[in-house]
Specification:
With 132 residues, the chain is mostly beta strands. It has a single domain, classed as Jelly Rolls (Sandwich), CATH 2.60.120. It has 1 helix and 9 strands; from the N terminus they run H-E-E-E-E-E-E-E-E-E.
């Protein structure tokens, strides 16, 4: 199995994960809940070209499955660039997957010409007896 580049490079130092910044609450126009139980949460994330998400976070590590790709810039709450996807050493293609760490509060702007459409499987717990 070939290792994919992780597209989260932020430190999670003591971030508090306020519920108001949860992707489904803070940016519902771009995030839809497909499934949730005590172990996982599955989100359908779709960001059309030129759109920017509201400030939001992703509390859990996740696997991302790309339905379609578009370049993006991820900003922190102050507008600082956290990641410009054009600098990635490997660009995901439709049908590929990768792993990402939890993401602190951020906005994401689709700077490409197509939808950035991703199925995100967030891992809330590793087993029903573990606490995240």
């Amino acid at each position: 199995m070939q290792e994919q580049e992780v597209i989260a490079n932020e430190s999670m130092n003591q971030f508090q994960w306020p519920e108001s910044l949860d992707a489904l609450i803070a940016a519902p126009q771009h995030h839809k809940l497909l499934f949730e139980n005590e172990l996982v949460r599955v989100l359908d994330t779709n960001i059309p070209p030129g759109e920017i998400t509201n400030l939001h976070s992703h509390q859990f590590p996740s696997s991302l499955y790309f339905l379609s790709w578009s370049h993006f810039i991820r900003y922190d709450g102050e507008g600082n660039v956290l990641l410009d996807s054009r600098t990635l050493s490997k660009i995901p293609v439709a049908g590929s997957a990768l792993w990402t760490a939890p993401l602190n509060a951020h906005c994401l702007k689709n700077i490409g010409d197509s939808n950035l459409h991703v199925i995100c499987v967030e891992i809330k717990k590793t087993t029903s007896n573990d606490q995240h």
